[in-house]
Queue: 2 jobs
Job 1
Amino acid sequence: MSALHLEARIAARNVGLSVDVESGCVLAVLGPNGAGKSTLLNLVAGLLRPDTGRITLGDRVLTDTEAGVDVPPHRRSVAMLAQEPLLFPHLTAIANVAFAPRSTGTRRRRAHREAMRWLGAVDATEFADRRPRELSGGQAQRVAIARALAAQPHLLMLDEPMSALDVTAAPAIRSLLRRILRDQDRTALVVTHDPLDVLALADRVAVIDDGRVVETGSVREVLTRPRSAFAARIAGVNLVAGTVAADGLDTEFGPVHGTVDEGCRPGDRAVAVFSPVAVAVYAEEPHGSPRNSFRVTVGDLEARGATVLVRAAGTGLAAEITAAAVADLALEPGAQVWFVVKATEIGIHRSA
Amino acid sequence: MTSRPESRAGLPGWIYLPAAVGGVFVILPLVSMVLTVDWSRFPELVTSEASLQALALSLRTATASTVLCVLFGVPMAAVLARSTFRIIPVLRSLVLLPLVLPPVVGGIALLYTFGRRGLLGEYFEAFGLRIAFSTTAVVLAQTFVALPFLVMSLEGALRTAGRRYEAVAATLGARPTTVFRRVTLPLVLPGLVSGAVLAFARALGEFGATITFAGSLQGVTRTLPLEIYLQRETDPDAAVALSLLLVLVAVAIVVAARGRRIAGAL
């Protein structure tokens, strides 16, 4: 696996991008439609040529407009997985997966064996002899993942790979991708709209808007304290990292209870995710009902129309409460309070 | 009511009238031809030496033309559909010109290209190659008029298929030739087959360019349509019988292509 460095400008599309992904890291790319996310992927894949720019992958120069370098797509070792699986309709599943090895000169029988191995890696061996039209969306996307992996790419690019799947198929594909990206230290770019994808798959986040990278940072930074308007819309959530225990999540605040994702096993690293709107603020710790309490010090207050965002100092947690409640509690920076969240408002997801 | 829900929002009733008139206009002449044939003499008429020679020549030359159309038409369609050069729209109009050109004019144009004093014919002549008024001329004339049918049909198929599968194949490491052979062509196979069938049918029926450029020598350049035209003067019954034979051949081709369920547009 190799690091990706990209610097590219296309005047006609008003795009000027600068993106870096370290070797073995997964970068989530967020941004509104038409912001330039697909342009970024096409630039890296070599399907689009920049006016000026330089793209390197590992120690190879893929594009360098000054030196006149422009490696064609088939020699870039960059595989792309799109929203739709785009399996070749005239080939069986196994022939689709064997396509890449066959294209690079592997003999038929060996390519077939390799393809079977990759189908096994995505739990899809039973679909080997089916045609794409006989597969469901989730099954086809599994085969498409195997096909991309069989090319043994140095960089994997996923363009909203879950967005065309129905809600029941998405979690299984997400955990499959997690296994493939995280456990094998692959370098990857993942375009997504879903904070869950970011949490499960990515190390870092880049937000693209209007053809520019407007924000980069670690997953935690961007999801909890988004600086760009777009990231704030899809993120702005509270994240508490910890380790999955028998009855919830072990965190720096003590145990946190919530709805635990299927597939989370004790000992897994995970995060508790909840919205600031779900947080109530108390001066004294309440007792009784199944709630989670976090002892925090008020950091700053930010007026948001009729509500106020109360940020806790040093924790990244925030509560969004009414201005009246702020007045009743006489909140001010430095005050010691309890942030309280119902267990039903908290989702616990495996994290990267 | 047994009608399905979607038929409620269907066609206006009056549209069936002109549609029916058009349908009858196409089918009635075929029916009247079947009614006119002198069935007692039919076997004898279509198996005369001149007829069989004409039929064999027609099938041979139309097959050769179709092969040429595929060999050159597939790359032409690929360039027209995928190339981004600015001259492409102009080229497309020029290449498709034989569609709207009267075949006789095409024949004359070919004559002034490959004829004895033609643009290229002069040089061929120097090597002792004479193309005009030979079976080769028949094939060239048929290819000239049939090529646009294949190019047009295939270009449409290529545009409909889009480039997304090709992009995926390229990122999987396939060279452009591999992409073309293993992805592009299989995806447009129905379009290619229907284009080839159209081209074959057009070549089979070719008359004007052939008689102008290749003449009408029995066994050499006299194809079935030319034979029908000549017989009409001397033996109208034979002309009708041969016409029916040509119709049967055309129907057989279309049915064969449809039977394999890959004829696409046909």
Job 2
Amino acid sequence: MNRDAYEAVIGLEVHTHLLTRSKLFCGCSTEFGKGPNENVCPVCMGMPGVLPVLNRRAVELAVRTGIAAHCEIAPRSIFDRKSYFYPDLPKNYQISQYETPICKGGYIELPGDGNPRRIRLVRIHLEEDAGKNIHEADSSLVDFNRSGVPLVEIVSEPDIRSAEEAGAYLRELRNILRYIGASDGRMEEGSFRCDVNVSVRRKGSSELGVKTEIKNLNSFRFVEKAIEHEVARQIDLLESGGKVMQETHLWDPIREETRPMRSKEFANDYRYFPEPDLPPLVVPPEMVEEVARTMPELPAAKRVRYADDYGLNDYEVGVLTAERETADYFEAVLPGLNNPRTAANWVMTEVLRAANESGRSIAEAAPPASEVGALLRMVEESKISLNAAKTAFAAMCKSRKPAAAVVEEMGLAQVSDESAIAAACDKVIAAEPGKVAQFRGGRDKLFGFFVGQVMKAMGGKANPKVVNEILKKKLAG
Amino acid sequence: MASSSDLNRLTISEAAERLRRREISAVELTRACLDRIAAVDSRLNAFITVTADEALVQARTADKRLAGGDAPAMCGIPLAIKDIFCTRGVRTTCASKILENFVPPFDSTVIAKLREEGAVFLGKTNMDEFAMGSSTENSAFGPTMNPYDLGRVAGGSSGGSAAAVAADECLASLGTDTGGSIREPASFCGVVGIKPTYSRVSRYGVVAYASSLDQVGPFAKSVRDAAMVLRAVAGQDPMDSTCSARPVPDYVGALTGDVRDLHIGVPREYFVEGMQPEVEQAVRAALRHYESMGARTIEISLPHSSYAIACYYIVATAEASANLARYDGVRYGLRASAEDNIALNERTREQGFGAEVKRRIMLGTFALSAGYYDAYYLKAMKVRTLIRRDFERAFEQCDVIVTPVAPTTAFRLGEKMSDPLTMYLSDIFTISVNLAGLPGLSVPCGYDSDGLPIGMQIIGPQFSEETVLRAGDAFERSGAVASRRPAL
């Protein structure tokens, strides 16, 4: 059987919580981790007679998401009721958007080897989240804290061709959402969720095969695994003469396989109709302008700029733009430095290590970026050695004192005084007549030995450039 | 001057004046109403819940405010509230078994406003379950009887609120109107009732039947009283996004008694064959009376009127099917015992809803189903636009439109229960007004040979409540119809 004769056709539906303080249609807090049913009121509990009032901040964040994803922002969109019975859905309908979403079209650009790939979007719409069912041995409980938390659903075209590409899309999308402050993208808290639509077809065909939908995917790794599993399952099925059924599958993370849901679990006619309790959502041009004006530079633009302006390679660009915090930090280290790569290397190694090892954010784990910039300037100006800088950095992480003070306190300043260095060179040459003779006899490799001895004699603080120059002259005799 | 035992017969205008002069107290006034309820309500069944103790506490508080002077207009006025308004701490049943023991933790906006004004709440009145019906026979608490003839219906769905005013159990009451639920019972019970422009009054905390049609309004003993209550409850509400931000005019100040500038439209489609001749005669007589007062009448046409009932029963039931989905036994209200969640939903709804509610949920669910949406819901929305345009065109020629409220006077209990379609026709003259979102006033304009009240409907353009009320008040004050009281 030839799996390579097939290609996968994948579309993703991402649901992500918006970072608002209050819920989409009431004033309740969206804070995660409160006790069961602490963040509730008659509105998000679906009491008789209650009415929704739209959260303006949620609209702004949805518009922000749309602009970041190059969507068309609808000047007027409509909320609809999506009806289905489920105990965590208090009204037994969800207020969502159906025919006229707030954002249409757009795309997400994936990083690639000089040839970025665009995954087109169908739409982005606003909707409310449901509560959470908690099943116990002989009963079920419902926590409505999440009920009414604002979500955007971001629907891609079936432009994705592999599990790996799906992963890249999700990472880039989450990155964008975090850059623009729309979402914290925390999959483990359920604030970033993904459903996958998968079909396969023979390569070269432009028709779409029958798709299955996979739900219950709560990590990027599961998304990739589930797609791999499902693509293989569908190909095997077709190759053995079977047919793919249009159905919904659940990912079982323990068995690492998908299994179809019972038909009762998903066989819904959602009976969408316009929500009569909310007037049409009007996004005035001023709001779009304001959001566009305050839009930060997004990862795709940063990637181009870092490569073009700083001469960084794909790998470096990738690491530095993967999180907005890293990129912002990097850019704050840069001013006053001659070589951007100095800053890049430092952020990629020392700064990220400090953050990773402590499990904290860069802001918490590393010194202020301006001080790291000051430290690296001293390296560029040969005032301290690279090793001394590392020592100083470690101390700065702990004490959070300015670079200059730490270098001063720890006596890390480099000696460039030629007479002191020349004196040390003379001593070493005098002490090693044999090695001097060998060197002069052609053993060039011994030069490193002499440098080492001089540095040692000067307590590691000598400027290596000056040491090299003086040693060369003196050894040449 | 009424004796102290007759205080419950006062209008709000009269009572407010006497409260202000401290001739009577709010407690006396409230006691008179409670006594009347105790005396007659076992025969009428206008109330589902009477809150006598709470009412007396509220009356005492009102008396203190009145003694301090500068009390608001509704201070100390005893009111009856349709059991569709959420009332904090007082059960709100919507006349349904499914909410039989539901005690809301919050007040509807309208109740909060009246509470702030110092109004006294006597209790919660009977209605058709979830406001679905035209006779108050679809109540889990039994029907409300018409005070003029205990063998007849009070109309519906706000039958309890209409009967309570007609029987002097209260000074005024609140109802809701989705297709005629204020105007038809007002007509059947011989009281004044107004359905304001859609969005004029907040719907927050009013148990929803059909969200794009539901509107709150008062029942009262005079147009002036209705204007007073409307002024107290109308206005913008941050909790209701569909509620209008327009300032609330001085409705009482608009009642000049003068109609000489008015052009009254008379739609030819509203005097149909099969209607009770005495109803047509009474409305025609009222129109002649308006002419004698200096108004002009013009025949107009509302050509899409015949589609109104079909359109209504798709739009209203579609919205209702979603609005009533929340009664599932999970969070509040009736919970049937069941082994799993699906059975819990099914059994709770099977046991909790009455036949008419189930019928409308099924109708609405069907109209919204995949494959039928375009043919039913979407088509109905288009028809709704046509009906709205009919009125817009008509109001280019006239200021108000006058029609009968209902084709008949109050019918007999049980007469139409077996035939829903005939029952639906009771609302034939009122439904279009909801579909178009217009204000409609029901004013008594005569009595039939059985002594049953006949109502006249005065319809105006959106937000023309001042004109509509002025027209109704002028007719009422002209003495064209001698007011009667039911002999209970």
